[in-house]
Amino acid sequence: MGKFRTTSLVSRNRRMTVGLLGGSFNPAHEGHLHISREALKRLNLDQVWWMVSPQNPLKSESGMAGFEDRLQSAKTMARDPRIRVTDIERRLGTRQTADTLGKLTKMLPEIRFVWLMGADNLLQIHRWYRWTKIFTTVPLAVFARPTYDSRALAGQAAARFARAYLPDRFAPGLAYRAPPAWVFLAIRRHAASATAIRESGGFPSSNQPGEPDE
Fold first, then answer.
1. For residues 20-45, average pLDDT
2. 150 alpha-carbon distance from chain centroid
């Protein structure tokens, strides 16, 4: 795979604010693009990086499209020069978000990162490896997702970090907040679904019952 380099993503002599959107991208779709553009605008970010996961530990490998296919689908969908598609986790050799964030923040201390995710992932993030470490490593921005919002905001993670919650008026400066800090953004919902795309024949089906869509 070669030595991990960041020169294609960022100039090391410049401070930046970057949103990180991780996922299977199986396949990438308009919903990912919608959330990323909202993040750029609402959080006052310089860039959003799509981190295509080699394999989501919470998802079955059965039916999962190959990594290169998923990476290419993300590159095709990322129709904005501020959105960068990366294979960071493959190059770093990490499969868990907590580990990826730990390495990135040490390697690139000049960048202010924000972890981006939908309300569906907030609802089940307590199942993730070392999930509290994610909250204490970088600020988080949670985006509304149909049918998940009320349950997510009443869920285990939201309760655990209730004191770190910030009203959305603080969103533009979230990247400069010391973690733990998170906001919930009630953006316009987008109907795109990776599951629906796969079921229509666009990509192999991978989601099992109860798994969040990405």
1. 96
2. 20
